[in-house]
Design a protein that fits this description.
Blueprint lengths: L1 H12 L2 H9 L9 H16 L2 H9 L9 H23 L4 E7 L7 E2 L4 E3 L19 E7 L2 E6 L18 E6 L1 H14 L4 E2 L2 H14 L1
Parallel strand pairs: 1-6
Antiparallel strand pairs: 1-5, 2-7, 3-4, 4-5
Amino acid sequence: MVVESIFYSREIENYYPKYYELLINPKISKLESLDDRSRILMCLLSLHCRTPKQFNYFFKSVPESFQNRIDLIKEDYKTSHIGNTLIDFIQTHEYKTITIVKIVDNSEFITSDNPLLILNPKGELINHKFKEQFNKENVILIPLDPKHCCILKNANDKNGISLDGKLYYNRIKRTEANCDFVWEINAKMIKSADLECFGRENYLKTFFSVYKFID
C-alpha cells in the first residue's frame, strides 16, 4: 500500500493540476505529444481503478476455496493496479477522442466517490459490471469540475470506419451543453455513487429536490 500511494502521488496526482488546466483551457485545441495524451488518460482513468466499489466487485468474485487467503489476495490485487489494471485500462482506450463539454447555463455537474462513468453504446450506465472498463466499445465520462465534463469515445474516419489501433486523434474537441445534458449525467452519477456525492451546496439541494420526484 505504501508503494501504491507513492506511485499515485508521484505519477498521477502530481500531474493532475497541469492537465486539468490544459483540458479546460478553451484556447488549447491540440495535444503536443503522445506523452501528454498518456498522462491525461492516466490521470482520468485512475479515478476508476482506485474506488472501493471496483475492489469489492473483484473480491466478491474470489472463489470460496480461496477465502482463507483473502487478505493476501486483496493486497496483491491492489498492488496489481499499478502494473496491470490501470495500464491495461489506458491501452484499451488510448485511441479514443477527447471531448470537453462546457455548461453554458446555471446548471452544474456533481461528482461522487465513483466519479468515472462507463456507458455502453446504448448510453446505459454499466459501472457496476465487472471488467467493463476493458470494453473498447464503451464511452467514458468524467466531470472535471462543476462546469466541465470530459468524454472519451471511439473515433471514426469520414467513411465511418473505426480508427482504433490506426491513428491517435491528438486534438481536443470542445462543445457546449445545457441543463438537459447535465441532468442526464448527474442522474447517472447518483446511480454510480457508493456512499457520497459532491457539489456546491445550493445546486445539490436544488437537484435532489427535483430528483426524488422524477427518478
